[in-house]
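Continuing the series of single-chain predictions for the mutant panel. This is the parent chain; the variants come on the following pages.
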Amino acid sequence: MTTEKNLQGKTDIQSMMENFKKMATPGAPHKLLAGLEGHWVTHTRAWMGGDQPPVETSGTCVQTMILGGRYLQQEYTGEMMGEPFSGINLIGFDNQKERFESIWIDTMSTGIYYFEGVIGSDGKTITQESSYDDPDKGHVTWRSVTRFVDDNTLEYEMFLIPKNSPEEKMSEMTVTRETSAGSEKSRIH
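Parent structure:
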């Protein structure tokens, strides 16, 4: 009986390890993210409310796959409202949940913002949401839309969805890959 129990225990452990290995193996969504590795230039338009025209800024983004191709680390630098600005986004695809997940941190806050969502049927648009308590508006939801325009261009849009109020477009960003002459190659599929 002890031998049967030990064999069953080994089988359960082996099965568990196989499941963990399967869930930890990067797949097609991770390959999509890997296509974003490199140095990028950003152009952002942000709306600060009311009838004011958008504030336009530019910056850079360095994107690097980490932890064996499981996550994309995006490091943004630029300025916001005349001040230096830095932000880091980590995005990955959770094989078990079958959802994209990301966290955002930046120099304008001490919070960590968690987003999750799915890729659209076009295979080139990721929509994610995050909820948190805003100091001015109370509990709000953010909607983030990432569009893979082509191998060298991304578009991001951020929308604020206040409780009991219409959605507001807060920012849009065009991100263009820095390329050296003759070095462009297809990376996003």
